[in-house]
Fold each of these.
Amino acid sequence: MEALFERDLQIGSHVRMRGSRMMLGAVEEALSYRANTFMVYTGAPQNARRKPIGELRIPEAQALMEQNNIRQFVVHAPYLINLGNVQNPEIFRQSVTLLLWELERTKQMGSRVLILHPGAHVGAGIKAGIQSIAAGLNEALSVPSDVCVALETMAGKGSEIGSRFEELADIFDRVRYPDRLRICFDTCHVHDAGYDIKTNPEQTLAELDHYVGQKQIAVFHINDSKNERGSRKDRHANIGKGQIGAAALYRLVHDPGFPGVPRILETPWYPDPADPQKSLPPYRQEIAWLQSPQNCSAFLDTVSTSTVS
């Protein structure tokens, strides 16, 4: 394992921006997990309601990040953006408008990466959906910015686009601003889409490299999967508690070919042993397990009896 260990490892988790502390609270949550990067939504991911940028406590959050050597973080766009919807022009138009808004908010917060689900064709077919996604991206990215859009690899539920690397490559080929387009590699999604990252993660990365280029990966989502490979279901599991397994995820986390690329955990919370009505975040434990060969070796020896489930 030592040969694979990446010494500039950027690892964190999804954290919440809520209440009066907003982005400052998000940074504090990340620090409580001993993370050195994190992912945040600029508001609830299920809707477009957003607080004014001046209420997010950005200067205080950035000062706390600097004090603790957090050099970067990533933002995730809301789920309701669907650039692939050619069936409803109003939804497409709203999606472009919201994407432009999120790009500006991401810039104001100090991140350079906005993660985006490519979209779903809702019955119009993959080709039409890809054309629509590219058109929406071309419009949004025509506004100058140093923020890039990282298209997330998808599991393939329903009419989702982006579960195959060829589909992502087709989008890249149609977008006129390739310097503003990147990839978010989600391990659960890639597994559920049918790629074998359990036994051969390097081959899966080589296939992505063939179609899009490994250098396009701007962020990893590190999640185990509750499903068999190819299930197309997208149900995250805790590290070592799913069908991918801790060993393969460790290899991806420490792949030396991605120095400085954030690894973000989105694994499920687990019931509080003292109060089953409450849930606890697994991120401090999972980050510790993945940060070093020694920690992960101990984790692999005990994963079957871990309290994280």
Amino acid sequence: MNTDPIADYLTRVRNAIKANHRIVEIPASNLKKDITKVLFDKGYILNYKFEDEGPQGVIKVALKYHPLTKIPAIRELKRVSKPGLRQYRDSKNLPKVINGLGIAIMSTSKGVMTDKEARKENVGGEVLCYVS
């Protein structure tokens, strides 16, 4: 039993990047699927695929690297809101990651989105993680 599935998701991606893997498999959930879609839309991962294997399914994520230098697109993944201490921000106090160069993934009443999209929608919510 996993008490923090989002931290597990981020750790699997972080470990795969450190080991220079091209593809990482992660147990699926709706929130993890939404986070994967945000990472793909913002260009941090190359591609993804949802497969219905087993009781809950699997997310296969193709990691993105620079073609010449082999530097990963994701330099840092940091979990912000934890089960023991949830981090919520209203629309006026949304975080900026590296002065807007990175993204903060948020769970809002209008779905999972980045901090920039939440500013446009004028909604707040739970800050899940920082990606840079």
Amino acid sequence: MKQVQLITDGACVGNPGPGGWACILRYGEHKREFFGCEPHTTNNRMELTAAIEGLKHLKESCSVEIITDSEYLKKGITSWIHGWKQKNWLTAEKKPVKNDDLWRALDALASKHETKWKWTKGHASHEDNNRCDELATRAAREQISSEAGADKLF
């Protein structure tokens, strides 16, 4: 099974507001960057979208180390999601889970791989996370996307 790193970040100009997401996929010496935007969204939706889009680019089942600076994303997919699924996508307060469309998509994609989720401090010393932040912020501000959106990798 191929060992892949997926580094993600999301950004918003205002929250809600114009948003951007970015991810970097690494496999051996190979590195690919992807980014995209939405005109009106939230930071949390962009964090989730970055992980979803990164996983979509894998053409086979891989061992994926996913690095994020979003505690919402990491805690949601490694801890909270189990309770949400048991409660039919309701929170402990019996309210609908926010962003359940993206959580469901992420859960389905992540289940195709062996995933290990790691948190890193944002705007710190992780070079790829800083690059994702730069790309996501630019995508949000300029409402631009990378050209190679449909490519499957590794």
